[in-house]
Every structure is written in structure tokens, then in C-alpha cells.
Description:
Helix content is 45%, strand content 12%. It contains 20 helices and 14 strands. It has helices spanning 12-22, 38-44, 61-69, 86-95, 107-136, 149-161, 178-188, 206-214, 231-234, 250-262, 288-293, 299-305, 322-337, 346-354, 360-374, 387-390, 398-402, 421-444, 448-455, 459-468; strands at 3-8, 27-30, 49-53, 76-81, 99-102, 168-171, 196-200, 239-243, 264-265, 274-275, 279-284, 308-311, 343-344, 379-380. The protein is elongated and about 95 Å long.
Amino acid sequence: MILRLLLAMDRQALQRRYKKLLSDLDVLVTSPKGRKHLWDRIARETCDVVMIHASMLPADLDEKLQRFKSLIHSPSLVILSDREDPEQRAKLLAAGCDAVLNESLPEQELKEVLGTIISRRNELNKQRLELKQLAIHTPKLGDFISRSRAMQDLMKLTRRLVDADASVLILGETGVGKERLARAIHLDSARREGTFVAVNCGALPESLLESELFGHEEGAFTGATRARRGCFEMAHRGTILLDEIGEMPFHLQVRLLRVLQEREIQRVGGEWPIRVDVRVMAATSRDIGELVERGEFRSDLLYRLSVVRLRVPPLRERRDDIPELVSSYMEYFRKTMCRQVTGIREEALEAMLAYGWPGNVRELVNVVERAMLLGEGAEIGIEDLPEEIVCVGKPGGSASRLSGFADRRLSFPAHWFKRPLHEARDELYTEFERAYLTALLEETGGHINETAKRAGVTPRALFDKMQRCQLKKESFKPKKARRPARSS
């Protein structure tokens, strides 16, 4: 974003000096002509910083400054003076000025001060922009309307824990909306006025994650030229989400456990602990219980993090929600794209209902956005959908091969009829997943990247599925033929 600075000096030589000085600071400088109605023109200008000489201040300064500060996103105000007057400086700062500078300051020192003011304003603009973008799609618990029993049970439990400060562990596959649910819990809780900070523990190198979480002091390590607040400090009085908590290095798990127990953090290189008031939520797409069994995750930390566990079901387990989700995201993209796509044709919706959605809700959102962006009609048609979804409904596709299941009695294990439908279905899915992955790994010779590509999942997701199904890639590697023994 280009910052705009309005420069009002009482002398042409001074004006030229500061324009030259500011040209190195990447700001767009404008200068109003004359003193008449100067403050009215300032109020009408769209600018980020106003730099004005003290000699041009009006007699009714308090009234003008009050009006100035009442502007939407009022600019930062810098006063330049030709004399050192502590009483005037105190009065101006108390009235709301951001800085009072002496024009006789050395050029380099003046440039550094102005650079700091401009940098601070740039950061403020960035934060406002991020908040504005967030407000467009701010999640609420009321948005999680569902026809599926699994989601209804999940939301019933979620509403009971909203106002508690208990730690929450959100489980679910990649793309089901774990962070969105965590953000909705925060915004419906008593901590809604505080900051929500999300940290992806799997996206940062181990060397940076500790500093990101707990902050560091100046000189704590090479490159630490100034002290920095960590995410726990930024989330004070609010909520922190530790996403992909299963990826956290073991030694940091010890530090996190201490934070949860003592409610204190210590910056890297710091001498004293800092008290924090933070609600901690964590999320993972991995089997956290299996990580504990393998010794990769501390069991005592798991108990602290999972006072309440929420499992977000994958989209394939709640297909009844697909029509409503499609309609909801179409309405959202109509506003952001200005495209008048009013509905979806029946054959396109049937193909979406038959598809397995390995990427879950995130994949569905991308499909709807793509269809609305590339489609030419007023409705989304089958031709607007990706090939992998279209193929499901074609002759010979998976939907047509399974269509005969409803027309004949199948032989099921007797114990299935003593269990609820969703448990029997989950067992059937697990067996199918194991058989599917076994066959695919045999075809690829245990090649993970190739298998993941053909299965339509990430290598990490494939690895997790293989762990659940107790499959090892070494079992599918082609066996090397033995060399015949040499005759002596």
C-alpha cells in the first residue's frame, strides 16, 4: 500500500528540504497551497500522515484537533517546530499529536524518526485491511447449520463449551474447517474482544517456531536485532489456536505443557516469566493417540490440551449438507465476484453428491468458486465441474458401478446389525480404504508420491491413512532378483 503524506510548511525552502527527505521513505507527498481553509482541506484529503509546521497551527487548536481525530481512520499528525518549548510540546501531545519534532534535528536523525512514524502507520493500515477482509467472512456458530446427525451432535457439544475457558482439541481431516470452527468459538465466547491468533505448528521450521510462539529478546540469537512479542503475548485476553499440534517438536511440547500449567511464558533469551491470560485450542488432522503410542507426543500434554475433544466429520459422512453448502458459497461468491449465477443444475448436483471429496469442504469451496468463475450460464452445469467429479456420474464411473447395490441383498457380517448405521458404515469405509490403498500401492510399487497423486490426496494424508490401515511402503517395493552364486 502506498502511503500518502500531506506536507504543510510555512517556507518554500523548508518545504523543498522535507520533500527531498521524504522521497527516500517511499511515500507519496502532496502539499496544499496557501493557509486559507487549510484544516478544512486537510479534513477532506485522503492521507495517512499530516506533517505541518507549528506556525501554521490555528488559534482554536483544540477544536480543530478534536475534529481531526474524529475523522474515519484519522491520519497520524506530526508537528514541526522551530523552537524547543516543553510546555507547547506537552500540550500538543496531550491534544492528540503523534510527534512534535524540532526542525533543527540532524537530517539522518530526522529521517529515522519519520521512518518509524511511517512504518508504524503502514502496519496500522495493514491491520485494518486484514480486519476488514476478515469481517467479510467472519464465521459464527450459527453458520454451521447441518442436516447430518454427526454435525448436529458436534454443534450441540460446541455450544455448551463456548463460554468455558477449557482447552479444546479439534480433530478432523484436512479441509474440514477446524480453524473456522475454532474462530467461531472464539467470536461467540466472552473473549471475543480479544485477539484470535492461529499458528500452524507444521509450517514453521523448528528453529523459528519457538520464537513465533514465545517471542524473543534482542540479541537472543543471530539476527535478533530487536525484541519481539510471541503469539501467546499477542493473544493475551484472547484465544490461540495451535494448528497441526501433532507436528510440534518434542522439546517444545515440554515448554507448552508448562505454559498450560503455570499460565506463564518466557521469551527466548529472556530472564523473567510473563503472565498470560489465553484460551488455548489445538487442532490436528493426524491420529494423536497413535503419536502418543509411538512416543512422538507427550500423553500429559494431550490430557491438558483435550479437556474437550471435538471431531469434525469429513464431508463424505455428511453428504446431506452438500446442497446447502453449495448454495451458501454460491451466495458468498456472488457478492465477491459480482457474477449472477443463481443456481445449480440437477445433474451437476448429483455428480457432486456422488463424489468422495477427499479435500472435504475446502475442496468443495474451490469447486464452487471455479465453476462460478469459468461458467457462462446462469446455473452451474456438469460441464463447469472438474473432470474427477464429472467422471463419477459417467457410465463406468464409480457411481454407476455401485448403483446395483440398492437392487440386491448383500451379505453383511451378523455383528453389523447389532451396531448403529454410522458405526457399520465407518467399518465398511475403513475396509474399503485398506483394500483400495493396498491395490494402488501394489500398482505403484510403494511409490508414495505417485500413489498420493492417483488417490487425489497429499503425501502427508496418504501416510496418515497408511498408518491407520497398518500399511508400510516397504511391503510393496519390488523384490530384487538374487544374483546367482559365482562358481569358484
